[in-house]
Amino acid sequence: MSLSQTDIDLTNLPRHVAIIMDGNGRWAKKRGLPRVMGHKRGVEVARRIIIKARELGIPYLSLFAFSKENWQRPRLEVETLLKLLGEYLENELPLLMEKSIRFKALGDVEDFPEDLRDKIREVERATAAFREMTLVLALSYSGRAEILRAIRFLTKDFKDGGLKEIDLNDETFRQYLYFPELPDPDLLIRTSGEIRISNFFLYQIAYTELYFSDLLWPDFSEEEFVKALGEYQRRERRFGRVYEF
Q1: Which of 55, 114, 121, 174 has its CB surrounded by the most CB atoms within 10 Å?
Q2: Which one of 7, 9, 12, 22 is the catalytic residue?
Q3: Number of domains in the chain
């Protein structure tokens, strides 16, 4: 079913949408193109979805751009992805400024070369004052690594005496995550027909609504994004509770 923006309830949108942008390589292979062309097309699609999310007034949009596991890909592909990321940061800063979008990187940014780390921090600083919308790029990110990192910091604080067992709860644990103020995703979208989470936001998605699209990411569109939002609005979110009538 095709949905337009007028078919969804603009007062009942998710606060935080997370997207696993999968299928760039397969999109290129199907067309006899180098994988890099799929990644380039994927960047263009991401830009359109970011603009649509801003237009709709969605406060948080998280894109899984580069996982810890991606470092294991062929060296040339990794170098291409890093080059595209650097170009994206440089080219999109004016758009982020124009649309008042705050940029945050989520993950082990120290894994990246120094010049790329500097670009990431530069864009974060330049957009830090914006609060209308936050764009999160998961970079060298792993959900398991995030949890283990939080546990390491927690353990250190216990040993140093700054934290007591009675203090440990969900709210406390979140303070040790990469971006503590980031709300849990209300909706997680994954493209390419794969039905798995791939180590993304493992702690945060306990009650997230999942939406799987058969489209490869370069074929994903604003209309498909709105379709996912419409499906989200048709679901009843109970968070483990039962409502009696």
Answers
A1: 174
A2: 22
A3: 1
**Cβ(154)–Cβ(168) below 8 Å:** yes
Query: Is 7 known to be catalytic?
Result: no
What average pLDDT does this structure show over 228-239? 91
In a domain, residue 4? The reply is no
d(C-alpha 160, C-alpha 117), whole Å: 31
Q: Is 11 inside a domain boundary? A: no
β-bridge mates for residue 104, sequence order: 136
CATH number at residue 102: 3.40.1180.10
108 is an active site residue = no
171-184 pLDDT, tens digit per residue, is 999 999 999 999 99
pLDDT of residue 143: 98
Residue 242 banded pLDDT, cuts 50, 70, 90: low
Answer yes or no: are the C-beta atoms of 206 and 229 closer than 8 Å.
Answer: no
pLDDT of residue 182: 98
Query: Residue 169: which domain range?
Result: 18-233
